[in-house]
Write a structure and sequence with these properties.
Order of helices and strands of chain A: HEHEHEHHEHEHEHHEEEEHEHHE
Largest sheet of chain B: 7 strands, mixed
Distance between the termini of chain A: 62 Å
CATH class of the largest domain in chain B: Alpha Beta
CATH class of the domain at 6-215 in chain A: Alpha Beta
Largest interface: A-B, 56 and 69 residues
Strand content of chain B: 15-25%
Shape of chain A: globular
Strand order of the largest sheet of chain A: 2-1-3-4-6-5-11-7
Number of strands of chain A: 12
Oligomer: heterodimer
Radius of gyration of chain B: 27 Å
CATH superfamily of the largest domain in chain B: Thiamin diphosphate (ThDP)-binding fold, Pyr/PP domains
CATH architecture of the domain at 6-215 in chain A: 3-Layer(aba) Sandwich
Strand order of the largest sheet of chain B: 11-10-12-13-15-14-21
CATH architecture of the largest domain in chain B: 3-Layer(aba) Sandwich
Shape of chain B: globular
Number of domains of chain B: 3
Distance between the termini of chain B: 49 Å
């Protein structure tokens, strides 16, 4: 197996995202993560397929020197599903946006998660339609003023994490475009996860929704407004790492370590592998001002995958059936002779 | 009464009852039994969209017509010799399908005041009201007799009443001198594992029905239909169009060496193809019941990209939903088979009725310049070859292919002489070979100069990494909005489809080619009816199109020999318009029917004669 580096995954195509767009950083993280994944899983480059729908982020397959499929709006998840079922040996990565995956492609998205098909979905969430130049998306904040909501939206946004977990997702991670190292870590974990992995990347659209995630990405604010979850580690955050999450019997609460009788002992330890979807849901739904936004791998649990199920069933029936070729099939059941 | 056995060339029987009365099963059993006996035959299930429409109403009537013969049988028959009507509504809905001297068998018990009123009869004599009181009426208390027959069976009342159809079938077997053994075997096979207790009661009811018919002395004549002399020697089976289509795909999978993938969403009347493929995992078929029609085709496109023989199956409204993705497959130049089992439209239309009105949608229903291959099946068993051909064209020409079937074909059945796979050609997709030289890039849209077909590199092959998608690209696979490139690629994609004509058979003239005044033209599932009409008339020529786009290469040469061309189709003239656009100087006429029903041979004979 070739020793792959990030250069092996860079195509010769000119990257055409706007300067300052958050997508550049996500692409870089992916190009850095895949050599590590290849090392860990002994994968050659030709085994990777990158699929996308339509939108700014969906240009990503052109920038990856792998097999790629830039499909149609919303349908990337269905195409990825077909690729993986047809050939489970391939490793499928998917780039899609919030409008792409959660509006027009919402149906395919939830059903891929429900089936737990082994694909890796990077959901670029910039809370806006960028390629069509600035209309609100299913993740735009309530009241967002955009070109199609000049007086503010009057609809509630999706929290992608809650949607994934509501569909009984087996892997959900969240991060910010600028968190290059964390993103590499998340992408590697997603690749190692056998099942449908959804990575929500909060990306910044410099043109139509600049600063949408500023509260989370601003170096001065992010330590207090986000918490990076890692399996087996205490849920501690804050500039001075003096805040933590506890469970008070009813819900998760933020406490100050050393105040009100709380010590580090009381702080929850993150268990990404627990079956208990309730705690993961609570973590995924945390938001300001009362809570930090959870980043990192929130849920990573084992379950049967759809592609394995399809493959095993075919093998099983093949072994048991008396029909081994089409001639056998044609003569199965009731037949009769005409002399 | 003197009992005479009449040797009939062919007979048509129509079983009709409430949609819960088991008429589809009764009809298919009669058909299967006749097929094994050696008759040629054709069947036509005509059933409502509702699974259980209000009991006893005309809208809930389910019918199954079977035409058996000792000669050639090409259609389910226009009118029937025996109508079995299990209730007044069935009589009302079907009396119009009786021949002048038909026999009508009814369940007297169902013809009470309530039954008559539910069916909307105004008087106590429904036969007179319908003007069929001059037919041979056979009024038997079938419900009472079934209850009597099973009084010691220990079955509950509901289960007993379900056996009424077996009593009726027994009577029909007497009238047509059919041996009961086949049905006995069927019952044993079907129920031996789960409900062995119902085998004997069903056999008893069947025999009692048979004996009742023999004993009542009301049936003057019974009939035999000898085994068909027209059937070629060989092994036969019964097959429906949907089953044949599924099997044709499996055959193409075997001949191409590519695993079959079917991504589909249930829709009447196409669902049976997905169901059939789901059974045959032993041949490596993978089926994915998708979350919607769009996912059906998109998973198939993904599977195609990954190197499977990819298929999606649907009916009219589903085809509409797949339009955008079909355009993607055209643009990405990936092989894909789309089977459309047409039903009455537009919109939800007439889900369980047959029509040929999706032709325009198949040909044109996409944005942009978006040609693809379109072929049509012409009989239930021909769905096997049509599906095989659709797959072969798709894989060898790197294009989506729409195979048009029809509800009439999908649900209809006929005996089929089982082919041998050694007689079918290998399917050879244009795979890339070897590994590209160091530094050499694969150009996905470079073409074979003779066929305009691109090469196929499948993910997993070293050195062939490339991107496909919906955006216009140049030959190298690089995005391009260059005006000249777009025009070139549009024309090359179109040329690629036109060149498929080199691989498809020429159009044949059937019937009597010496009469140059008129050529009768048909396509798809109307074949049996038109051919029967042409044979009846004798001195007229007929051409039937299995290949719609591209047309057979000799089409112009054939059509131009005739003064007039009469295109008969179950729509408003879509194929006629298609031919007119190609051959504007020819005198192309239309004969159309849009009633959700197949043609009648008699109406075709009349229409053709009028134009001779």
């Amino acid at each position: 197996m070739a020793n792959l580096t990030f250069k092996d995954f860079k195509s010769d195509q000119e990257v055409r995202w706007c300067p300052g767009c958050g997508d550049h950083a996500v692409l870089a993280a992916l190009q850095r993560a895949l050599p590590k994944v290849s090392q860990a899983l002994n994968y050659d480059k030709e085994r990777y397929v990158v699929v996308s729908g339509i939108g700014c982020s969906s240009r990503l397959p052109y920038y990856m020197d792998t097999y790629g499929f830039h499909s149609i709006h919303g349908r990337a998840t269905a195409i990825s599903t077909g690729i993986k079922v047809a050939n489970p040996w391939l490793t499928v990565w998917q780039a899609c946006g919030d409008g792409d995956a959660l509006a027009i492609g919402g149906n395919h998205f939830i059903h891929a998660i429900r089936r737990n098909i082994d694909i890796n979905i990077i959901l670029f969430n910039n809370q806006i339609y960028g390629l069509t130049k600035g209309q609100y998306s299913p993740t735009s904040k309530f009241g967002a003023i955009t070109k199609t909501s000049p007086y503010g939206t009057v609809e509630h946004p999706f929290n992608p994490g809650a949607l994934v977990l509501g569909a009984k997702g087996t892997f959900f991670a969240r991060s910010l475009d600028v968190e290059l190292k964390l993103n590499e870590e998340i992408m590697t974990a997603a690749a190692l996860h056998d099942g449908c992995s959804v990575m929500e990347m909060l990306t910044n659209c410099v043109i139509f929704n600049d600063g949408a995630h500023k509260n989370l990405s601003d170096p001065a604010l992010k330590a207090d407004n986000t918490i990076v979850l890692r399996h087996g580690e205490k849920m501690i955050f804050g500039k001075n790492r003096d805040k933590g999450l506890i469970y008070d019997g009813k819900k998760i609460r933020v406490v100050h370590i050393g105040e009100g009788g709380f010590t580090e002992e009381d702080i929850l330890v993150h268990d990404a592998h627990t079956d208990n979807i309730g705690i993961h849901m609570a973590l995924a739904e945390m938001k300001g001002p009362d809570y930090p936004v959870a980043l990192g791998v929130i849920r990573d649990v084992k379950d049967i995958t759809y592609d394995d199920g399809v493959r095993d069933q075919v093998k099983d029936v093949m072994a048991k059936s008396k029909i081994h070729c089409v001639d056998d099939l044609l003569h199965s059941g009731s037949t009769w002779e005409v002399e | 009464m003197q009992h005479t056995i009449i040797d009939a060339k062919d007979v048509v029987i129509r079983f009709a009852g409430d949609s819960g009365d088991g008429m589809q099963l009764t009809g298919s059993l009669f058909a299967d039994m006749s097929a094994i006996y050696g008759n040629s035959l054709s069947t036509f299930p005509d059933y409502p969209a509702e699974i259980r429409a209000p009991h006893g109403t005309v809208s809930g009537v389910s019918g199954f017509q079977v035409h058996i013969g000792s000669g050639e049988v090409n259609t389910p028959g226009d009118y029937c010799d025996l109508l079995v009507a299990m209730n007044p509504a069935a009589l009302k809905a079907n009396a119009k399908w009786c021949k002048r001297h038909a026999m009508i068998l009814v369940d007297e018990d169902a013809f009470d005041a309530s039954g008559l009123s539910k069916a909307g009869f105004k008087t106590e004599n429904p036969f007179e009201e319908l003007g069929v009181d001059d037919r041979t009426l056979l009024v038997a208390p079938i419900t009472t007799l079934t209850i009597e027959s099973l009084k010691d069976s220990g079955m509950d009342n509901k289960a007993v009443l379900k056996c009424k159809n077996m009593f009726t079938l027994g009577m029909a077997c007497y009238i047509y001198n059919r041996p009961l053994e086949y049905i006995f075997q069927y019952l044993e096979k079907k129920f031996s594992k789960k409900h062995p207790e119902v085998i004997e009661p069903n056999k008893k009811v069947l025999k009692d029905g048979f004996n009742y018919a023999a004993n009542i002395q009301l049936i003057a004549n019974t009939y035999t239909v000898k085994p068909s002399a027209n059937l070629k020697k060989g092994t036969y089976r019964n097959i429906t169009g949907n089953q044949a289509a599924a099997w044709g795909l499996l055959a193409a999978s075997e001949k191409s060496g590519l695993p079959l993938f079917c991504g589909s969403y249930p829709i009447t009347p196409a669902t049976a193809i997905l169901e059939e493929l789901a059974i045959h995992k032993s041949l490596g078929a993978k089926t994915l019941q998708a979350e919607d029609e769009i996912a059906g085709i998109c998973t198939a496109i993904g599977a195609s990209f990954a190197g499977n023989l990819a298929v999606t199956t649907t009916s009219g409204p589903g085809l509409s939903l797949k339009s955008e993705a079909m355009g993607l497959a055209v643009m990405a130049e990936l092989p894909l088979v789309v089977i459309d089992v047409q039903r009455g439209g537009p919109s939800t239309g007439l889900p369980t009725k047959t029509e040929q009105s999706d032709l325009n949608q198949a040909l044109y229903g996409r944005n942009g310049e978006c040609p693809l291959a379109v072929i049509a099946a012409h009989s239930p068993s021909h769905c096997f070859d049509a599906a095989f051909q659709a797959a072969k064209i798709a894989l060898e020409h790197m294009t989506p292919v729409v195979m048009l079937s029809e509800g009439f074909l999908g649900n209809g059945s006929e005996p089929w002489r089982i082919p041998q796979m050694k007689d079918y050609p290998e399917i050879k997709p244009p795979f890339v070979r070897g590994v590209p030289a160091e530094g050499e890039k694969f150009h996905p849209f470079e073409r074979n100069s003779e066929t305009m077909v691109r090469n196929w590199a499948i993910p997993g092959q070293k050195g062939y990494e490339h991107r496909v998608g919906g955006l216009e690209k140049n030959h190298n696979g690089v995005l391009s909005t260059d005006p000249q490139n777009h025009e070139l690629m549009v024309s090359e994609r179109a040329k690629k489809i036109e060149l498929i004509a080199a691989d498809i058979p020429e159009l044949e003239i059937m019937g009597d080619p010496s009469n140059k005044s008129l050529l009768v033209v048909g396509w798809g599932g109307t074949f049996g009816h038109i051919w029967s009409a042409v044979e009846e008339i004798g001195n007229v020529a007929y051409a039937h199109f299995d290949y719609i786009n591209p047309l057979p290469r000799n089409t112009e040469a054939v059509l131009s020999q005739f003064g007039k061309i009469l295109v008969c189709e179950l729509n408003s003239g879509q194929f006629a318009d298609y031919l007119r656009a190609r051959f504007p100087k020819m005198n192309i006429l239309k004969y159309n029917k849009i009633q959700g029903q197949p043609f009648l041979v008699s109406e075709l004979v009349e229409a053709i004669r009028k134009n001779m």
